[in-house]
């Protein structure tokens, strides 16, 4: 037997020597993808010999060949196989094409498709060890050249409660923590029930702009239908809870336990709950359990304890496997991820996490993300997961917020009425000369990628969203337009799919010139304007240079509903913020004067 092995080894050695001796040519080249990115570890088969080779660093390869003209076959996971004839004496530059699914994993997605300003060089991207996605504020677009803009609506409201946390700590807010559309979402302004079988209803309003008298504000409000609570489909919920060492603080794991306990009290016998944890231990803490066994579920929640590292990737994979195994057809299948986002074992980068969640969500699994904590809070990572996972995102800064998200707004948070929702707004250039979308700012990385596309959002039951545009009047619109003019300002098209369906539905609405000065407008539009101004100040928007903190305070005071605790809380936040921000400006001015 040993003799036979020696003979085989000698034969292989001789063949390798023979190949080297007889090789008169050396096939060299490089392999890249469509974005000119080098591809490593591509399998290369030289057809004349049948031997397997692979590309190295920089996508480079070098293969000896005995013939001048040869053929090679290339393969790499996620890319289309490629076979081609080559001249072995010439340097080869080869491009491999991504499969459609791989392209979707690597694509950046936009919240809006309006052209944006250059990123401001002095942005505060983080505070302590917290991270936020770098955003670029939307700028003015001339209607003549670009009359159509796209928007991704969502029910996210994490930014508002996170801002509240900073203000209550008497601290300035990181500018990229400010997402104005999420601040507006927090209030669910003036809900309007869609009529008949419609999924959405739309209303628009044109008014004056308090920070620029030459411009106007166009409000586009969209509300989704409410699900019949008696006919809500059964839920398959997987609680994915971070129990790593970083969660061992009063405002983290104990806060989440309180929030989940409130949610459990509202479960029905037809609902199923599972609990997956990741930390010192990663695994199933509670197997699928009926909603009528509340004591068992509550005890499992009570037994949670924090410790260890943060293997978020392992937890995500485990939770989605469980959600797929207990999938309810035509039901509400959802993973609820609760974490501070500080992943430190396994996949942890934002793009890697996005790719992971895109793979995991296939098959109709939704994702709700609940962020907690401070100091090491990774907003950018949790936000990325929510957007890629057919999901929504909330930040819990106290028990009251947990009750708001998981009890009072349960149907908005956990039950989708439409998927892949996007709005296209087509402006009439005769009525609108230029427009600027307030909020829905894009990540800087998405804007730098010319292949980025608009991303559809998930809309929950009974949600009311307001998009606000600052506009300049067009040639046919005077500075004080008359309501009788009735000219069309814009056409809004809502594109969406019903949950679990692939067919795309559309609703179309015309925005007409119904101008009313802000002071005479329904109070909720004025209040929404004060929210936009507040967000603009926190975001250091250059478009508010003629406005003051007192303007925000006065507008809020005039438009707030004093019986609404959310309104009174917002007013208190604005007053606190003025005290935090204005002294620093005075100090800067004094320092400049001294120099």
Strand content: 25-35%
Structural class: alpha+beta
Number of strands: 27
The profile of the biggest β sheet is: 6 strands, mixed
Question: What keywords describe this structure?
Answer:
about 600 residues, alpha+beta, 6-stranded mixed β-sheet, 15 helices, 27 strands, about 30% helix
Characterization of the model:
With 595 residues, this protein is α+β, with helices and mostly antiparallel strands. A 6-stranded mixed beta sheet has the order 16-15-14-17-18-19, sandwiched between helices. Helix 8 runs parallel beside helix 9. The model is unreliable at 8-22, 104-110, 114-125, 446-453, 478-485 and 585-595 (pLDDT under 50).
In short:
30% of the residues lie in helices and 28% in strands.
Secondary structure layout plus pairing:
Elements: H1 2-22, E1 25-32, E2 43-46, E3 52-54, E4 60-65, E5 69-75, E6 82-87, E7 92-95, H2 100-106, E8 109-110, E9 135-136, E10 141-142, E11 148-151, H3 158-168, H4 180-185, E12 200-208, E13 216-224, E14 235-243, H5 253-264, E15 272-279, E16 283-290, H6 294-302, H7 312-325, E17 332-339, H8 350-360, E18 366-371, H9 379-388, E19 391-395, H10 399-408, H11 410-414, E20 416-427, E21 432-438, E22 442-443, H12 444-448, E23 453-454, E24 457-460, E25 464-473, E26 488-497, E27 505-512, H13 523-538, H14 549-559, H15 565-594
Parallel strand pairs: 1-7, 8-23, 14-15, 14-17, 17-18, 18-19
Antiparallel strand pairs: 1-4, 2-3, 2-5, 5-6, 9-22, 10-21, 11-20, 12-13, 13-25, 15-16, 20-24, 20-26, 21-25, 26-27
Helix pairs in contact: 5-6, 5-10, 7-8, 8-9, 13-14, 14-15
